[in-house]
Amino acid sequence: MTPTAPTVTVNGVERPLTDPVSVAALVTELLADDAGTPVAAPTPGGAPDGGAANDHAPNGDAPNGVAVAVDDAIVPRGLWGSTLVRAGARVEVVTAVQGG
Predict the structure, then answer these.
(1) For residue 60, which of 40, 38, 80 has the smallest C-alpha distance?
(2) In which residue ranges of the chain is pLDDT below 50?
């Protein structure tokens, strides 16, 4: 029998994961637009990708209104860069949406 490749479960969907990845990198990948450009990629003098300036975090890491939990524990945004997601982890990425 062939061993299975390591995976991580993100929002209920298994994804391949060969090496540990930071929460920040995973969120950036998940929020990439159709062209493959990270949604939160900073652009000079404005908000990322033409969005409203107040929709995004001031440091350009990710849009405001995004929360992440790894194995049922919420990861504070300030720790996204140093928190590693390893194979077998369960990750939930939640985005808040405004409207009625």
Answers:
(1) 40
(2) 34-35, 38-58
User: What are the E-state strand segments in the chain?
Assistant: 7-10, 13-16, 21-22, 66-70, 73-74, 84-85, 90-95
Question: Is position 20 within any domain?
Answer: yes
| Tokens found for residue 40 | 């939160």
- Count how many residues are written for the chain: 100
Tens of pLDDT, residues 26-39:
998 888 753 455 44
- Does residue 41 lie in a domain region? yes
71: in domain: yes
Containing structural domain, residue 59: 7-95
| CATH number, domain with residue 20 | 3.10.20.30
Q: Is the pTM above the cut of 0.85?
A: no
Which ranges constitute the DSSP H helices of 1-100?
23-30
Overall number of domains in the chain: 1
- Three-state DSSP at 84 gives strand
- The tokens describing 75, both together, are 């990861």
